[in-house]
Amino acid sequence: MDTPKGWILGAGMTGLAASYASGVTALEAEAQPGGICRSFHLPSPAGDYRFEVGGGHWVFGGDAVLNRFLGGFGTWRSYQRRSAVYFPESGLRVPYPLQDHLHALGPRLAEKCLAEIRLDRQQSPHTMAEWLEWQFGPTLNELFFGPFHELYTAGLWTRIAPQDSYKSPIDLARIERGARGETPEAAGYNQTFLYPEGGLDSFADALASRGSVQTGARVARIDTGRKTLELSDGRTLSYEWLLSTLPLDAMLRLTGIAVDDAPGQATAVLVVNLGGRRGAHCPSEHWIYVPRSRSGFHRVGFYSNVDRSFLPQGAADRVSLYVERGFPQGAQPSESDCAEYARQVGDELCEWGFLQDVEVCGANWVETAYTWTLPGSRWRETAIARLHAEDIHMSGRYGQWKFQGIADSLRDGLLAGGLLRTPGAR
Ligand SMILES: Cc1cc2nc3c(=O)[nH]c(=O)nc-3n(C[C@H](O)[C@H](O)[C@H](O)COP(=O)(O)OP(=O)(O)OC[C@H]3O[C@@H](n4cnc5c(N)ncnc54)[C@H](O)[C@@H]3O)c2cc1C
Q1: CA gap 250, 188 in Å, rounded
Q2: How confident is the model at residue 125 (pLDDT cuts 50, 70, 90)?
Q3: How many whole angstroms separate alpha carbon 247 and alpha carbon 240?
Q4: 35 CA: nearest ligand 1 atom
Q5: Which amino acid residue places its CA nearest to atom 41 of ligand 1?
Q6: pLDDT digit string (tens) for 17-44?
Q7: How many CB atoms lie under 10 A from the CB of residue 63?
Q8: Does the CB atom of residue 405 touch ligand 1 within 6 A?
Q9: Is the CB of 270 inside a 6 Å radius of any atom of ligand 1?
Q10: 312 and 44 in contact (C-beta within 8 Å)?
Q11: Which atom belonging to ligand 1 lies closest to the Cα atom of 36?
């Protein structure tokens, strides 16, 4: 048998798409494909709840062609985003993006925030913290952007470079209309999204069935001189080239390649999934951003506000939700600490009136969830170029160390897979 020319590393959304487009086998460490984009069921006295490993994963940013591609793998439903900023001390919910709805903060505060946003801005901020203060001014920053980003970046926001400004859009005309109490048109990057009728795992499985995936194949070491991969089960595979969707920092460790610049930073997320009877003050949004919480979480999402199919059958008085808390990379709490933390989150959400009780809960750890760069560092570009020089091509959100959703990850995989396909194959 011929030795395969190349391998794809990882069978999350990027690796699955690349395998589909190229026919090349994706080596996946876990027992199932899909990465953090998988749904699963947990039993409760009311019946089975559907949850997701990485918290709610809604597919935004698809264009007509990508949506057509998705449609080839089952039926997808479309939703209009409902999200808000939630202030737990007052119970106030202000539609996202907050800066477009200042009126909801009351006329005096709205006027003050507006005046600060209008300030002349001639600086070029180096860190995310400086950028947020520069863009939104001290009042709005203290009220929301500062404490939210402290939680979301697990404290890194004062050191990392600004990025992803489209998540906090700023348009003075819209902001002024919102401050006057007019409802501005929807803004932001995820106004509509899709979700597969059968759950995200059904999509991952369907995509995997049209490519080639070896599950339980964890890459433990890469010898770039000999062009061999060592798997944790002891097998050695040779390669001519690799398409890797593994996080860029992990690839440097696996290959032993050193990059002499300030290294990229990453944060982990602990996702707590909870189901129970719906509380009297449970929001109707799909997700809410939280600047302060006793348990330290920064976002609560409501699967069942998106689609009832996440609830046990006939349990319309229930709610299923996910809660995200940022951690420094490598700071994974023990199993008992996670269980204790999940209990604290349930208590806090019952106090907020989101839940009446908790019927089922569980926590999942995502080691590399968000990636960041230190100001002025060329680590990312250098690392990608060094690997490329060894015939290792990086693809996807974590491979290329950038923020993006499933749609862009699929596009990356489809493009790379198409370009690496052996001429004449299929
Ligand atoms: C908290 C959170 C919420 C998100 N919400 C959304 C959302 O609502 N909508 C959206 O579109 N996107 C969302 N995303 C982004 C989305 O998860 C990513 O775009 C997508 O998962 C990236 O897929 P990937 O295949 O590149 O990476 P991954 O899913 O990380 O896939 C990499 C694969 O490599 C495998 N692997 C790792 N190490 C090895 C090894 N040594 N050997 C072999 N295999 C290995 C992993 O098991 C995994 O399956 C969210 C991300 C996070 C963190």
Answers
A1: 31
A2: confident
A3: 21
A4: 49
A5: 219
A6: 999 999 999 999 999 999 999 999 999 9
A7: 10
A8: yes
A9: no
A10: yes
A11: 29
* Assigned CATH for 6-36+199-259+378-420: 3.50.50.60
For 97-120, write each residue's pLDDT tens digit: 999 999 999 999 999 999 998 665
Q: What is the 3-state secondary structure (H, E, C) of the chain?
A: CCCCCEEEECCCHHHHHHHHHHCCEEECCCCCCCCCCCEEEEEECCEEEEEECCCCCCEECCCHHHHHHHHCCCCEEEEECCEEEEECCCCEEEECCHHHCHHHHCHHHHHHHHHHHCCCCCCCCCCHHHHHHHHHHHHHHHHHHHHHHHHHCCCHHHCCCCCCHHHCCCCHHHHHHHHCCCCCCCCCCCCEEEEECCCHHHHHHHHHHCCEEECCCCEEEEECCCCEEEECCCCEEECCEEEECCCHHHHHHHHCCCCCCCCCEEEEEEEEEEEEEECCCCCCCCEEECCCCCCCCCEEEEHHHHCHHHCCCCCCCEEEEEEEEEEECCCCCCHHHHHHHHHHHHHHHHHCCCECCCCEEEEEEEEEEEEECCCCCCHHHHHHHHHHHCCEEECHHHHCCCCCCHHHHHHHHHHHHHHHCCCCCC
* Contact present, 304 and 320 (Cβ < 8 Å): yes
Instruction: State the pLDDT at residue 280.
Output: 98
The set of residues, in sequence order, having a beta carbon less than 8 Å from that of 167 and lying 6+ positions away, is 188, 189
Q: How many CB atoms lie within 10 A of CB 256?
A: 10
Residues 243, 245, 247, 253, Cα dihedral to 10°: -30
Q: Which atom of ligand 1 is nearest to the CA of 13?
A: 25
Burial of 301 (0-12, 13-18, 19+ CB in 10 A): buried
User: Which amino acid appears at position 187 of this protein?
Assistant: A
Minimal-distance CA residue to ligand 1 atom 15: 405
Pocket test for ligand 1, best of 7, 219, 397, 408 (most atoms within 8 A of CB): 397
426 or 289, which is more confident?
289
Which of 406, 408, 411, 414 is the pocket-test mutation for ligand 1 (most atoms within 8 Å of CB)?
406
Atom of ligand 1 nearest to the CA of 14: 25
Domain ranges of the chain: 6-36+199-259+378-420, 97-179
* Ligand 1 geometric centre to CA of 56 (Å): 13
